[in-house]
Amino acid sequence: MTVVEQQRQVSGGLMLGTGSTVVVKVGGATLGGATFDSGGTLLEEVAALVRAGVRVVLVHGGGPLVTAWLDRLGVPTRFADGLRVTDEAALEVAAMVLRGLVNTGVVAGLSRQGVAALGLSGADNGLLRARQRPELGLVGEVERVDAAMLVQLLDAGTTPVIAPLGLDATGQLLNINADDVTAAIAAALGADAALFLTDTPGVRGADGSPLETLDHASTERLIADGAIVGGMIPKVRACLDALAGAHNALILDGRAPGVLTGLLSGSVAGTTVTPHTTPHPPTPSPSRGEGEQVVSPLSRAQGEPVGLSAPQSRETNPHGVGVRDPIAEREAHTYMHTFRRQPLTLVRGQGTRVWDDAGRSYLDLVAGIAVNILGHAHPAVAAAITRQARTLLHASNLYYTLPQIELAELLLPLTGMDAVFFTNSGAEANEAAIKIARKWGKRYKDGAYEIVTALNSFHGRTLATVAATGKPAYQAPFAPMPAGFTHVPYNDLDALDASIGSQTAAVLLEPIQGEGGIYPAAPSYLAAARRLCDERGALLMFDEVQTGMGRTGTFLACQGEGVVPDVVTLAKGLGGGVPLGAALARGTANVFEPGDHGSTQGGNPLASAAGAATLRALQQENLLEHAASVGAYFMQRLGELRARGLPVTEVRGRGLMLALEIDGDAARVVTRARERGVLVNNTGPTTVRMVPPLILSRAEADEAVAALVEALADVAGEGR
Ligand code: PLP
Fold it and tell me: Is the distance from the beta carbon of residue 3 to the nearest atom of ligand 1 less than 6 Å?
């Protein structure tokens, strides 16, 4: 399974696959107890996961074997409140057994299965920093995990096998409960799942039957009622702890054949622990047959049904009508009032979905406004960022840095340009383009400095890019504007022709006006602009901040028209979610010299590493082709809305950059869609925009259409 497929599964019915990260706890009893002899089949399953591309961290226990060796060596053990107190002699035996016997045995078992496993204890190289629990002697609880060390090993294709030992701040070795180690590591890694293998069929409910799911409240109730007892209590608590950072926690029957490999096809033998106290009532996904409500292990762990959840808006829940959300209140007291925000606090994303602070999921067709092209939490981008953050996060552009050069080398062939300058945003990329045009005008056109742009365009929020933006309302509060910008109606060739004169250094156009409402250039408009610029001696510059990075089905939208500009700008999706922009130029437009332009952080190692990982994933996962085909399908489905009597007057766009023009209030459609678990935004009073991750599936397009049908019907009804 490719990363894309896996991400799609995450968003619409998860199964583990290439790039998933899991932390697997195998208990001493599961490994064969005191005889330590039946880990074989389980390790075969671990090996199968690894072969399927799952990144596995294995944590093992060893309790029964430790007890057997304590007996064998005649080391007396003391118990306090039913728990063994570990003194120095007991710790020596525990360390010897865990690290010497069990860890080595598991590594050997995995090696026999062809897995490159590395045995470690939490005491190695600061992997686990622990705090002593003096009441239990030399026993600790995890204080800190060096997750980056594990990420490095996983990136190198190594499976870490961890014995549950750690050091405290003074260097004292401590024994740690393996479930706690598993939870802490899974949380620190932000793992897809923490998998606790036991020798039981999972957690049992009050009537003794195994439970499929268990949430926080019912866990506490079942413990209070005495239904969950003994060793299962710390295990379910460890699951809840794991969920502080991991996306799922499952208690599985380690004796069931296929317990791990089943997760590759979504089958769970055990109990999924979820953090939520009040899961939504399930709403079947419109893309599935009726009654065929598939609940995936991962989405179930979020307390969420697959498909459309029915989240209520913050206006009505959880704070009640008229009650101001405390988060909005805090923001109002601290942040400049520049954004009209949706009443939604997003805390997590995975694939095409995001989750709010109440655990509700949304299909995300906004994608950070066309930024998250690979979806959320893409493993390759996350790994590149982690690796780079541990290596060299930032260095000045005074020095050469390799990630920047690597990114440039990837980007130039994709754009057909000769050189690039990296920025932190789209506006800065356009600032660079504007300066390129002015420098070019000075050098090649008698000091020409004017730039022709289009009405209804958007080029950014800095002063020069606001001046370039063809929207008087954005300029008025900040007048006077920097001189040298002329605006012409978009798609009006005669007006463009008339505007290019002796003072014109450049024409700057969006191939599709994005913020203006997804208005594509008319056929041959861009080619005609190219011809006019060539005839009159002006640069042709395309602002592809929103249209670039494959959004329209070609890497640059202008490539779909066969038109090559002199300068092109990118940002949004370029850093895969990390702020990054680029101004690229070719031929005589490659005009900057030392001292002409600069940026302290533009294209720093972190952003460049994220950008390079994003470009590689875009290519490896064939997302240009995918965006073109799913985009065409989505557009066709949106085209059906009008025929269904809904208030849609036009569907515009290309690839996965789409808009609905509606006869009604677009902001209300946005609200109603959000209440149905789908995020869209409006770019004007009557335009609903969709710029989803390029990994969107057809089923998700169907899901979005179903939500929009209801949202539009609601708004039409409310209007009457
Ligand atoms: N240019 C275009 C076409 C855009 O759509 C945007 C942002 O929406 C920008 C420039 C500005 O980019 P940024 O917000 O990264 O400065």
Answer: no
The protein residue with its alpha carbon nearest to ligand 1, atom 14, reads 426
Q: Is 458 in the pocket of ligand 1 (CB under 6 A)?
A: yes
Active site residues: 458, 543, 572
Mean pLDDT of 141-159: 91
The overall pTM is greater than 0.85: no
Summarize pLDDT for 269-279 with one digit per residue, the tens. Answer: 888 887 654 33
Whole-number pLDDT of residue 266: 81
CB 518 less than 6 A from any atom of ligand 1: no
How wide is the angle at C-alpha 380 spanned by C-alphas 377 and 381, nearest 5°? 60
| Residue carrying structure tokens 């706690």 | 180
Q: What amino acid occupies position 263?
A: L
Token pair 């060390």: residue:
149
Q: Residue 120 corresponds to which amino acid?
A: L
Q: Which two tokens stand for residue 285?
A: 């996904």
Provide DSSP, 517-565.
Answer: T-EEPPTTHHHHHHHHHHHHT-EEEEE-TTTTTTTTSSSSGGGGGT---
CA 43 to chain centre: 31
Distances (CA, A) of 225 to 283, 693, 704: 31, 46, 43
Q: Is 546 in the pocket of ligand 1 (CB under 6 A)?
A: yes
Ligand 1 centroid to residue 556 C-alpha, Å = 15
Q: Report the separation in Å between the CA atom of 559 and the middle of ligand 1, taken as the mean of its atom positions.
A: 20
In tens, the pLDDT along 489-528 reads 999 999 999 999 999 999 999 999 999 999 999 999 999 9
Q: Supply the pLDDT for residue 416.
A: 98
Q: CB burial class (10 A; 0-12, 13-18, 19+) of residue 171?
A: exposed
Residue 510 CA: nearest ligand 1 atom is 3
- 681 pocket-lining for ligand 1 (C-beta < 6 Å): no
The residue whose two tokens read 């541990």 is 390
DSSP reduced 3-state for 389: helix
Contact criterion met (CB below 8 Å) for 253 and 303: no
Q: What b/e readout covers 298-329, taking b as 16+ CB neighbours within 10 angstroms?
A: bbbbbbbbbbbbebeebeeeebeeeeebeeee
Residue nearest (by alpha carbon) to ligand 1 atom 1: 459
Whole-number Å distance, alpha carbon 419 to ligand 1 midpoint, is 21
What DSSP line would sit under 48-69, residue for residue? Answer: HHHHTT-EEEEEE--HHHHHHH
